[in-house]
Design a protein that fits this description.
Distance between the termini: 54 Å
Shape: elongated
Number of helices: 7
Order of helices and strands: HHHHHHH
Radius of gyration: 20 Å
Structural class: mainly alpha
Helix content: over 70%
Number of domains: 1
Length: 139
């Protein structure tokens, strides 16, 4: 089974040529993320001299995460959806959480790790706080 058959291009009224052109267009429209995402996550180093993530690894992580998310979504959904890191949370991380941690006395090159831990910790506790979890499990 080829890609045209797997994605049912003929049934969708498309062709390989159309999809390749659309993919190239989507890449060009989204390529800015390769530079902007790492720049935001590295920015605290430029602004405060500490707290930002290392630039090189963040560039690689941005590319790999976008590629893996896009490929998995496309294969699972059989639709041409491009995925990329969420920019709003990056700005929250770099310009709110890092300065907050610095204001209460945290510092150093590993500050970004502490901030990342705070983001993950918050994500885990938010769903529990929004639902009836306490009533269901503590009665």
């Amino acid at each position: 089974m080829g890609l045209a058959e797997y994605f049912e291009l003929q049934k969708q009224g498309s062709s390989v040529k159309t999809e390749v052109l659309a993919g190239a267009t989507t890449f060009l429209a989204m390529a800015y993320i390769i530079l902007v995402n790492p720049t935001i996550l590295h920015a605290p180093n430029a602004v405060w001299g500490q707290g930002g993530m290392p630039l090189g690894p963040v560039v690689i992580a941005t590319i790999v995460s976008a590629d893996v998310a896009t490929i998995l979504t496309d294969i699972y959904a059989k639709r041409p959806f491009a995925m990329a890191p969420y920019m709003g949370e990056n700005a929250l991380f770099a310009f709110s959480i890092i300065p907050l941690l610095m204001s209460v006395g945290y510092s150093g090159d590993d500050l970004w790790r502490l901030a990342l831990g705070a983001v993950f910790w918050g994500r885990g506790h938010l769903p529990a706080g929004l639902g009836d979890w306490r009533e269901d499990h503590h009665s």
